[in-house]
Amino acid sequence: AQSVSQHNHHVILSEAASLELGCNYSYGGTVNLFWYVQYPGQHLQLLLKYFSGDPLVKGIKGFEAEFIKSKFSFNLRKPSVQWSDTAEYFCAVTRSGYSTLTFGKGTMLLVSP
Amino acid sequence: DVKVTQSSRYLVKRTGEKVFLECVQDMDHENMFWYRQDPGLGLRLIYFSYDVKMKEKGDIPEGYSVSREKKERFSLILESASTNQTSMYLCASSTAATGKSSYEQYFGPGTRLTVT
Questions:
Q1: Helix, strand or coil, per DSSP, at residue B111
Q2: DSSP-assigned beta bridge partners for residue B94
Q3: pLDDT in tens, A45-100
Q4: SS3 state at A85
Q5: What is the DSSP letter of B77?
Q6: DSSP string for residues in A32-57
Q7: Cβ contact (<8 Å) for B109 and A32?
Q8: Within a 10 A sphere around the Cβ of A64, how many other Cβ atoms?
Q9: Cα B7 from chain centroid?
Q10: Residue of B nearest to A88 (CA)
Q11: With an 8 Å Cβ cutoff, is B108 touching chain A?
């Protein structure tokens, strides 16, 4: 069975700091990858996704992620975080052509003003 | 915009009660999913459905059942609620995967269930 590992459970940053959240998955075949975000009191929403093609994908609110197949990684980045980025971030993976997602345990990001 | 709605935001039930959580999506999605979300554990799949009257067990189906009588509606049932089922329950829907393509899931706001 595939699994997803998020390296940090909690991250605390000051505004304007750069962000990188790690995500590694275990499945060796073709995958589709996602990052979801859950702002306080809100529902989970898609931040960005990778299906194929350019391994560097850009999402909403200035986020991007890079798929490195050789490292089984899909790390999320943002050059300069804002207080409004305070949220929980989830990495998810599915085998291509499958409907079910496997989620990581999440990383809670707190950005201090 | 895809809309996934859940019948309640907060629910308090007693141990042993039968609990129904309802989910409705308005985008004609084939797939629907039920997850529970617990701190430090992320999202864990309880059941999913890829068509009306079809269901598949997820990672943690014990103590739960589901019903999908109409394409837009997917119900989660706790036959006899227990305190360890206190959690946030999330419903999601998606287009069916085709060939080598999978699609993102759209989530509802969640139901926070407390079993006392």
A1: strand
A2: B31
A3: 999 999 888 999 999 999 999 999 999 999 999 999 999 999 999 999 998 888 89
A4: helix
A5: E
A6: EEEEEEE-TTS--EEEEEE-SS-SEE
A7: no
A8: 16
A9: 11
A10: B42
A11: yes
